What does this fold into?
Amino acid sequence: MKEFFGSKKFIVIACIAAFLIGIMIYAAVSSSNAISSAVGTVFSPVQRFSQRISEAVTGTLDMLFNARDYYEENQSLKEQLAELYAKISDYTEVMQENDHLREMIDLADSADGVELSEPCTVIGRVANDVYGSFFIDKGEKDGIEYYDPVVTANGIVGFVTEVEYTYSKVTTILSNEISLGVYCVRTGETGVIEGGYELALDGKVRMVYIPLECEMTEGDIMITSGYSGTVPQGIVLGTLGETSIASNGLSRSGLITPTVDPYELKTVFVITDFDGKGSAYEEE
Amino acid sequence: MKKNNGSGAPALKPQAKTAIKWAVFAVFAVFMYASSTSGGASPKALLLFPFAAAVAVFESEIPSAVLGSVSGLLLDVSLGKLTGFTALLMCLFCAGISALFARLLRKNIVNYLAVFSAAGGIYLYLDYYFYYKIWGYEGYRLVLTHRLIPSALKTLAWSLPVFGAVYVIERLCGSSRKPKLEEQDKNIDRV
It folds into this structure.
């Protein structure tokens, strides 16, 4: 082996290694880099194709292996449906009342100023990421910006954390890098959510800084507060589980089950603009 | 295209065989990259790692280092890691594997598994250390038990068919090397 370390081959390999160290340093100091952008651009169609094949195979195998479970689930859902039919007449009344209340407190136009991107297809997933981060097929050319919120009709999914020319990476709210102000629809009490490795494995986030004497109970729906200026107010996040006194004894904390499962997503929307975007930073 | 291999089909030139071999390797690499970003929540096998290592067993140091770097860059993108982190490690691993198999080890699956396991173990530890342990976030050890180790075991299991596939390609498309006769080497002193 000694002659190898003195050979020209070794010098060439050392040069390649030095070049890669340069790339690594460049990538570390810049938010976006040409290499990952180029790789993503070239391989986006392949990723999309592969994702479709994977979904088709998984779906077929799932039907074959879990037919019994689906049958039982179907029976259970039929019972639930019967109950829901009974409730639907009440619901119509509540809807009408709700419309009147919205008009009264001028919330009917609360969605104004929110600009959504075109539907974004999930073209791939970050391999082995605990938080379920994924790539979407819209990027800088489609008006996507860093830290734009990503949503579906069911609620908030996460934030855009890498923007390349033709694609973007979305980090979900399960991540420990994301904190978000939320409040309870029923009681109006506020708190902050944070993620973690252990929580992410269960598909949950933790709500912290809940007042000790809170009125929130299990099953309460939590929505975004919009105080931070990173996300519009009023987007559904999830339902609250049991709360307990935090380790510092000064507040309570509880677990929230997000309404959106990142692993089930196929299409999402990016909120490219909204009233009050970045307001918290502007004030600073 | 001049010679006939006896089976009726014309024999390919060594350059053509080499071109076909690397084209097949490129297709393999793209497929393996796409497979690592597809599917659901379960930990995935990082097929590019055993693939680049298997190619390094049969190829010389520089092509191995280049393939290792390219595969590493693809893995960096698919794993969402700092661009160059995996590329640098795979460049060094593949060059090292190639040098080892050219000088010290016989080219068989047992040696490949031993060397690949060692390289994979080093990568696993560095990944865990720099991306999780060093930051000390709550529950970071769970990533090791729920993601990194299952993924590493899957990768190790897949390394056998990947080695087999690379071996077959090398057998079909590799240019046959004839060992030099000792007598023809003038640098050897004979007593």
Confidence is low (pLDDT under 50) at residues 106-110 of chain A. Residues 114-284 of chain A form a domain with the Thrombin, subunit H fold (CATH 2.40.10.350). Chain A touches chain B through 50 residues (CB under 8 Å).
